[in-house]
């Protein structure tokens, strides 16, 4: 093939490729110009939604924090925390912050250590006015506290344990049993019902506790202390929630 023919073929090839490119660009251009505003609009909508969500979350968080601060301030202003004391009848009190129990402990004589575990309020009974039946609407209630008295003897690996109800002005024994110090059986035999014991024996066991100053005055103190702890734990809980939400 002569050089002139080669040049003609090469020129036709270049023209053919150029037409393809031009045709492709002409085909693409109208779509790209119409899609661009749509994509830009969608992106703006997404940004707006994200902004609204952030603002809404910020508003909710701020409102919740405001309510928590107001409630904490109200509780502290209207009835400031007043701890009843850290000792009663020779017992030292451990508040056990953040728990639903408090502990008391003392040595009695040379051979005994007494430990008491006290629940927060965990029950109540109605107190009717004179001549009324129990359970009528509007009656006041008397709150109940569970008290576990454990008496350790220096020369024994066993524990004498009383399960009691502490009412505002008196103590009531529910159970009495002996257990090992090291471990508590899964289902220990806890003796007969206390009320089924001989009356004289019942009275003697109350005297046994009273001799160790586990008596009505201790119950009165515990009700005041648990009332203080209920409020202290409530305020502590609100402060903890507020602190977490501020992070």
From TrEMBL:
It comes from the Eukaryota. GO terms for cellular component: mitochondrial matrix. PANTHER family: COMPLEMENT COMPONENT 1, OS08G0439900 PROTEIN. This is Uncharacterized protein At2g39795, mitochondrial. It comes from Spinacia oleracea. The gene is LOC110805206.
């Amino acid at each position: 093939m002569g050089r002139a023919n080669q040049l003609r073929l090469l020129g036709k090839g270049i023209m053919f490729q150029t037409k393809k490119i031009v045709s492709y660009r002409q085909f693409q251009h109208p779509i790209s110009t119409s899609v661009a505003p749509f994509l830009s609009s969608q992106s703006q909508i997404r940004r707006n939604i994200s902004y609204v969500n952030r603002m809404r979350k910020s508003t909710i968080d701020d409102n919740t924090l405001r309510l928590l601060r107001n409630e904490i301030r109200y509780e502290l202003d209207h009835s400031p925390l007043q701890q009843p004391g850290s000792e009663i009848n020779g017992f030292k009190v451990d508040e056990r912050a953040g728990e639903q129990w408090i502990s008391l402990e003392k040595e009695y004589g040379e051979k005994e250590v007494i430990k008491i575990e006290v629940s927060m309020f965990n029950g109540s009974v109605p107190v009717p006015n004179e001549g009324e039946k129990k359970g009528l609407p509007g009656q006041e209630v008397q709150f109940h506290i569970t008290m576990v008295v454990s008496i350790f003897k220096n020369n024994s690996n066993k524990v004498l344990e009383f399960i009691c109800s502490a009412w505002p002005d008196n103590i009531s024994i529910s159970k009495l049993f002996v257990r090992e110090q090291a471990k508590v059986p899964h289902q220990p035999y806890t003796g007969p019902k206390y009320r089924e014991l001989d009356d004289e024996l019942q009275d003697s066991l109350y005297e046994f506790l009273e001799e160790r100053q586990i008596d009505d005055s201790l119950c009165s103190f515990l009700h005041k202390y648990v009332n203080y702890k209920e409020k202290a734990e409530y305020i502590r809980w609100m402060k903890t929630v507020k602190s977490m939400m501020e992070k």
